[in-house]
Amino acid sequence: MSLEKVKTGIPGFDKIVGGGLPRGYCYTVVGGPGSGKTTFAIQFLYNGVTRHEENGVYLTFDEPPRSIRASALNFGMNLARLEESGRLIIVDASPIRMEVGKYVAKSPAMLGLSNFNIDAVLKVVHEAAEKIDAKRIVVDSLTSLLIQYSDPFVVRKETLSMIRSLSETGRYTSLLLSETSGGKPSQFKAEMFLANGVILLRTIRQAEERVRAIEVLKMRGVNHSTRLHPFRITDVGIIVYPEERVYSTNPLHI
Question: Are 75 and 235 in contact (CB under 8 A)?
Fold first, then answer.
């Protein structure tokens, strides 16, 4: 039985995952600082609304909504316009709130406070998704959420709780952004094992410069590419080059 696919609309990426992401599951996008995770996520939501009539919700634990909108505008994507038309909602759970926006759904507790409750935040996300009939959700970032827990068991439990909450109905296709500073398997986190797929954004040193590369580490139910593919962050966002190869004799660094 073939799986229904959700097209990300990111040039070149859908080709390396067999036409898109299987609908209704959670996927982890992993990379270091500045690797392009947020850009990837914004394109996923923006293309969903503007090309495929699939509304979206963006849950942020890091950047304030104003910063996210500014980043998107750099690539010609006007998120404010989508918010105004009721096709996108940003749920702000960041610890520093720099604005009280008309189109920002406030979560009941901020990350880092003693009364923070992930179930309460997820309730706001589900209510926002229900309000606009959203089909795509982004969590930015899962790392910021989980860093407040010191017990590995609690980390795994909370990760599984979020993944189940977002995927149990099959209604949403979600991206969970995750930060890492190294590419060793021992550094891979719970979300990489629990999610339906893992997308790695890497930088590889070649001579005196670094080349960006994307790798699909896993994608359940999909005959995906297992190679590294170069990508660039351009003035219109990420572009993946599925027919090109990445060559290097040096170690890989995420």
Answer: yes
Average pLDDT over residues 200-207: 81
Phi then psi for residue 212, to 5 deg, are -80, 140
CATH 3.20.20.140 describes domain 20-200: no
Helix, strand, or coil (residue 97)? coil
Burial classification of residue 103, based on how many CB atoms lie within 10 Å of its CB (0-12 exposed, 13-18 middle, 19 or more buried): middle
Spell out the domain ranges in the chain: 20-200
Q: Which pLDDT band holds residue 83 (cuts at 50, 70, 90)?
A: very high
Q: Are 141 and 178 in contact (CB under 8 A)?
A: yes
- What's the pLDDT at 113? 55
Residues in a beta bridge with 112: none
Distance between CA 228 and CA 134 in Å, rounded? 32
DSSP secondary structure of 154-207: HHHHHHHHHHHHHHTTS--EEEEEEE-S---GGG--HHHHHSSEEEEEEEEEET
Closest alpha carbon to 11 in 75, 86, 100, 98: 75
Q: Which two tokens stand for residue 144?
A: 């910021």
